[in-house]
Input
Amino acid sequence: MFLGLDASTQSLTAVLIDPISGEIACQLSVNFGGDLPQYGAPSGFIPDGVNGEVHSNPLMWLEALELLFSRLSRVTDLSKVVMIAGSGQQHGSVYLDASFPARLGSLDPAQSLASQIAPALTRCTSPIWMDTSSGEECVEITEALGGASEVCRRSGSIAIERFTGPQIRRFYKSDPAAYARTCHIHLVSSFMASVIAGKSVSIDYGDGAGMNLLNLSTLGWDRDLLESTAPDLSSKLSAPAAAATVQGFISRYFVNRYGFSGTCQCALFTGDNPASLVGMGATRPGSIVISLGTSDTFFAAMPGPMTDPNGFGHVFGNPAGGFMSLICFRNGSLAREALRDRLGLDWPAFDRAPHATRGAAGINLMLPFFGPEITPRHDFSGPVLQGSPAFESGVDPALQVRALLEGQFLNMRLHSRWMQVNPERILLTGGASKNDGIPQLVADVFQATVERLEVSNSAALGAALLAAVAGGHLLADLRQVFCQTVRGTSMVPEAALGPVYEDALRRFEVLLDGVSSR
Ligand code: XUL
Output
């Protein structure tokens, strides 16, 4: 059996697959807020950060790993797992001193991971992808490289606040002594893989491309980007490598504590979005994936390298080879949750709303941003509404729910134009894709057929498939078995709504331009 783990913003998820029988043997999650309330991170990050800082506690991720393995060991025989791979929320970083490899190599199964790794942390919290604090550092890196287009040409993205390079620079500037003590900088993905492999492992091309440090032409760290980010940075990063490269046997710690076999191996981890591309069976160009998570992401395998002239889109390594494009929207579930709470609805009522109001005359517009947004970049302090009095006053909550969702997908349509794809088929994944209301709305806004896969944990499934690939299975065979769309659930667009949403898109753009230029 092959185990895939996904360390996302709000939870750590395991998917265990058996490629021979074609079965998913087990799926389990640990929710950081619900299962580990002692870390004070109800949504997986430490609330109330100042100056745009959003951090998380890496020890919480370690404790979640132990809880997940102990739950898994109760329902399945972990000695049957032959390979583990995984994914992590992208861009988040972990800072460790010279003792990290030795600590990993001599973990005592009688003590917890968190207590044994904690002394190696040179920064006790980890900036994650929601962090917008490194604007100044982005400007400095951009100037040092001679402009945004040069940073983009090399790394696939302009300098972006949440990307790891600008975050590293901010750490170096704010605490140079702690930076100097740091000998290993890891992404969430490579940190978790290192712990499982019992040694400090590499960063893969998929997640590494989210750092503003990887040169996409050479697939090595870019010397000029490293130098303009922080001194001596190359010595703190291990050489990048392809996802699913086998790293060696699992640490004895997990063999002794949770019953894994000593011959179980560990492969490199990747980012959650690249893993999701694999889990959705979308590693070849042709389909667009929309993932509705804490952040919403819009991504696709790329036929050739192409960058976003407006700087919102990114190019990451595709774990199956080549590249993928990605656009991230910060106000994903965060905005849906905020509106649900503001209107006093529960999730079932929220999911029914777009269905109930389908075909309502006229499109009310909502700029669906309840906090700072990265696509487009703007410090929104709340949504902007334009429409009928019943809509603006909120007397009919369903109208607002519908406008929020329409606004989210119109914003996606607007900001994915640079990809020059007119998707005929959209694969939808993530919690909010389960009921029919939202998928039908996506089909109508994009005028494309929307399909869903059986497994909603697409990143963890993708990681499990990558583990199987590392173990010698062919991705094409695995895709046939594990990435089938659910029959009878595809949503066909209503053609009459095509011109309606064309018009809504134009009005949305005008409204957004007016607000952004203020
Ligand atoms: C992608 C991004 C988020 C995180 C968290 O660039 O920032 O999607 O990967 O899921």
Summary: The first strand starts at residue 2 and ends at 7. Residues 8-9, 89-91, 129, 162, 210, 271-273, 293, 295, 297, 326, 328 surround D-xylulose (CB under 6 Å). The domain at 2-274 is CATH 3.30.420.40 (Nucleotidyltransferase; domain 5). The chain has two domains: 2-274, 281-452+487-518.
